[in-house]
Amino acid sequence: AKAEGKGRFRFYSSDMTQRQERRLELEAGLRTAIADRVFQVYYQPKQSLKHGSVAGFEALVRWPHPELGLISPADFVPLAEELGLITQIDMLVLEQACAMGKACLEAGHRVTMAVNLSSLDLKSLELVESIRSVIDASGFPAEMIILEITESFAMELGSGGIEALERLAALGVSLAIDDFGTGYSSLSYLKQLPVGSVKIDRSFVRDIGTDSRDTMLVQTIVGLAHSLDLSVVAEGVEMTSQRSILRDQECDEAQGYLISRPMPAGDVLAFLQAEEMA
Ligand code: C2E
Ligand code: CA
Ligand code: CA
Ligand code: CA
Question: Boundaries of each EAL domain copy (predicted)?
Fold first, then answer.
């Protein structure tokens, strides 16, 4: 048994070294990827439940890695946050999303572009200036840009963060509370922030129609949000049954695999064209 213990210890220790090596490799790769601007942006549509049309897209970052393939944000955004690199990535994504939005406008499609901002981002007012200059340079109207911040981050905002949000709102962009329902905040607290919409987290949408408590919870969120003049987006809509309940509940928009998986930039215009014909 002792020998086994020893072997196991050695296994764990080399496993840890391997993980440390992998982390260092990822960190170096991340820095190079930022410098070389290799990140790709995928776009996932949001559908208006009232009209059936595409209301806008959410920009979702991907990292094409020479050896590991297309890395999903779940595997590098947390590390980028820890290393203080996420803001640079978010600015690259914003720049691409604005260019995509402008291309859509020029092709005759008025769609909003939503971009995620990570927790560490809003701590500095400098960020507001970077966002302003990216938007100005793009020629895409600020009014058609949505910045998503998570509910848990919104709850941790100090006065500096709130001021940054207010300055962002003054640029004309809208703010959305992401992953709503996971952070135990109150809508009345959120209403003190310059927020235009909430995105109901996928975990609540999943069991809509099968779990009566989740169905009621979503109905309650929609009602409360509307009474505060907030619009509501449901995330992770995968089934037509979920969509029709959300429509009955007067949820404003649906996002999820049912409508489309996130798509590369090259597919966006064709997608919009096809939706218009349908
Ligand atoms: P999120 O902001 O909540 O984005 C939604 C995630 O749910 C996306 O994962 C999307 O592909 C996935 N999703 C959409 N519809 C469905 C569905 O019907 N079913 C299921 N099972 N999943 C669905 P993705 O692209 O892997 O992004 C994961 C998270 O990484 C995002 O969660 C966001 O928090 C973060 N992220 C992505 N792009 C960026 C970025 O540019 N900047 C920052 N700071 N964070 C980002
Ligand atoms: Ca989001
Ligand atoms: Ca979300
Ligand atoms: Ca989420």
Answer: 23-276
Per residue of the chain (278 residues), what is the pLDDT tens digit? 344 444 455 555 677 788 888 888 889 999 999 999 999 999 999 999 999 999 999 999 999 998 889 999 999 999 999 999 999 999 999 999 999 999 999 999 999 999 999 866 566 788 899 999 999 999 999 999 999 999 988 888 888 888 889 999 999 999 999 999 888 777 778 888 999 999 999 999 999 989 999 999 999 999 999 999 999 999 999 999 999 999 999 999 999 999 999 999 999 999 999 998 88
3-state secondary structure 12-60: HHHHHHHHHHHHHHHHHHHHHHHHHCCCEEEEEEEEECCCCCEEEEEEE
Residue nearest to atom 23 of ligand 1 (CA): 236
The overall longest dimension of the chain from CA atoms, in Å, is: 72
33 ligand 1 Cβ < 6 A: no
Nearest to 204 by CA among 193, 215, 190: 215
Closest C-alpha residue for ligand 1 atom 12: 236
Task: Evaluate: CB of 116 within 6 angstroms of ligand 1.
Answer: yes
- Cβ atoms of 49 and 263 closer than 8 Å: no
Residue identifier of the C-alpha nearest atom 4 of ligand 1: 60
Tell me the ligand closest to 176's alpha carbon. Answer: 2
* Measured distance CA(180)–CA(152) in Å, rounded: 9
Count CA atoms within 13 Å of residue 75 on its CB side.
Answer: 13
124 class by beta-carbon count within 10 Å (0-12 exposed, 13-18 middle, 19+ buried): middle
**Atom number, ligand 1, closest to the C-alpha of residue 118:** 44
Ligand 3 center–CA 1 separation, angstroms: 47
**How many angstroms is it from 39 CA to the middle of ligand 1?**
15
Given the cut 0.85, state whether the ipTM is greater than it: yes
